[in-house]
Each structure stands twice: as C-alpha cells, then as structure tokens.
Amino acid sequence: MATLSIAANGTVSAQSAATVLPTAIKTLSQDDFLKLLVVQMKSQDPLNPKQDTEFIAQMTQFSALEQSKAMQKDIAGLRGDQELLQADALIGRSVTLYDGKAVVAAGVVSSVDVVDGTPKIVVNGKQYTMNQVLSISVAQEK
After folding, report:
1. d(Cα 137, Cα 109) in Å, to the nearest integer?
2. 117 and 66 in one domain?
C-alpha cells in the first residue's frame, strides 16, 4: 500500500507513493485533499505555523478544479443532447453517407437510434454515425 510522508513542517511528499506504485493513478479526490489539509495543519511547527492564506489558496485551487470538472461533465451532456437533436432533424430527409473512402449509402433517414449514448441515423435499415453524413437534401416526393 502506498503511503504519503509528511514532514515536521507540514509538507506532504508523494514521492514514496510514486516509488511504491509507479503505475498508480495520481489523482486526489476532494476527501483526500481535505484529509491532507487536516494532517498538514496538525503536524505544522507551532513556532513557525503556515499562514492561513496558504491554506485558503490551496482550497481555492482545488475548488476551481472541481468546478472545472463539473463544467466539463455538463458540456459533454450538452454536446450529446445537441447531437441527438441534429440527428432527429434529419428524419425524413435524403442523405448521402461517406465512410472516408467512398460513398456507402444514400437514402431517406427513417429513424434515429441511440447506441451507447451516441445517436445513429437509420438509412435503408442500417445505422450510421452523424460524421458519415456527406450531404443532406429534402426527400423526393413519390
């Protein structure tokens, strides 16, 4: 098991953890950060204590990181919703699909399936991703 060493002045060293588990994931959760902060405060030198501004700066940085992670998750959700709306708008339209080498299909989009969170348009009974769409036009009346 990896351990963190804490010096008498309250500094935390993760070097021992890196040498014990070189392939371990080196991310800290908010709980880990708070535990380290408490240990730093408990083991600081009473004659030379750390300034509260140092702790506040650390908390601010960690808070900003957590907010950034939450924002990334929200943006990814919005991106998924946008892709679904774009695929939905293609229902009933004629499309030409391309696989990067040649045109693979052309036809009317009959439906949209969501596979593993990714919308797939259905043309001629087969599923295609949105990035395979080469052209879009109004479906021809029969």
Report:
1. 11
2. no
58 and 99: one domain? Answer: no
User: In tens digits, what is the pLDDT along the chain, a chain of 142 residues?
Assistant: 444 444 545 454 544 444 444 555 556 677 777 787 788 778 777 777 766 677 778 778 878 888 998 999 999 999 989 999 999 999 999 999 987 788 888 999 999 999 888 899 999 999 999 989 999 998 776 5
Going by C-alpha positions, the residue among 3, 9, 8, 7 that lies closest to residue 21 is 3
E strands within the chain? 5-6, 12-13, 93-98, 103-115, 118-123, 126-129, 133-138
> What φ, ψ does residue 3 adopt, rounded to 5°?
-130, 155
Report the distance separating Cα 121 and Cα 91, nearest Å: 8
- What's the domain range around 124? 90-138
Alpha-carbon span 50 to 7, nearest angstrom: 13
Is residue 73 located within the same domain as residue 13? yes
Instruction: Specify the number of domains making up the chain.
Output: 2
